Each structure stands twice: as structure tokens, then as C-alpha cells.
Write the C-alpha cells for this entry.
Amino acid sequence: MINVVANRYAEALFQLGEEENSTDILFKELEKVVDMMTKVSKDFYKVLKSPLVSKSEKKNLVEIIFDKEVSSNIKNFLKVLVDKDRIAFLEDIELAYKDLLNKKNNIIDGVAISAIPMSETDIKELEVKLSNKYNKNVTIENVVDKTILGGVLVRLGNEQIDGTVKTRLDKMKEKLSEVIS
């Protein structure tokens, strides 16, 4: 669950995006920043979170590193996070922002867990069926988990649709145990 602090900052950034009609652009930039800090340059992220580095030095680093990479809105947002000692919440802020953007665009992100990789055609077909069922735009990410044996387990928000062989076998085992006992 995304925390209250992350939600507040995400909502503030989202509101700015709404005012400037740039919610999608801000998300792409935020995603780029988080990706850079968590995958490309973890040391830079550590520096921004470090209490040993002054806030003014951190803000200068943000300005230098992201000079031509992102808009002034995102740079200023990062500086506010530095000022308020909230930069450690950046990944959660990105997730909270994405939730807000998805709500605005009527999108539900889901995961389809299968024993083998699903084809693009199967994924698209599943997205269309689920979109029709929920009357929203559903996007599915396929995750492979060999322990489910076969079938598909779909997770959409708090809902789960379990069509896996493992679950069917577990239910059969349970019924057999009841009969035998």
C-alpha cells in the first residue's frame, strides 16, 4: 500500500499536471527520473537521500543532472522533495501518481500469471475481454510462474481470477480429503 506522504506529493504533482494539461508528460518524466535513480545511478539516489550532504548541494545536483533531461516542473518537484526530506518516497510517489493517472484515463493495470509466457495475441485477447467485462481499459503484464502448472491467474487491483491448474488440483485434493475423512 502506498503511504500517505507519497499520496500527498503525487496529488500535488498531478494537480499541477491537470492545471497545465501535462499529466501524461509529467508521468513520463517522473518515470524516467525514478528509473535513472533506482536502476542507472543508484549512487546518485543515495547521495540525495544522505543526511551528510547539504540540501543546497542536493538541489544543485538535481539541477545539473536533470538540466536537459526533464522539465522545470519535475526539477522543482525534486527540489521540494529534497527540501522536505521526502526524496526517499520518490518510488512510492511514482506509483501513487500512476494510480491517479490511471483513474483519470479509466485504466486498470493487471497481471496475468501463467506457467509459460503468453503470446501477444493471447494478452491482447485477455485485455479486450477484461476491458469489456469491467468497462475500463485493462492493460495486462504477463508474469511467468512455473509453480501454477498451467492456466492463468489474473490480478486486477484487489480482484483475482484464478483459472490455474494448481488451484483446481488443490480443490480436488480438498474434496477427496473430505470424502476420505
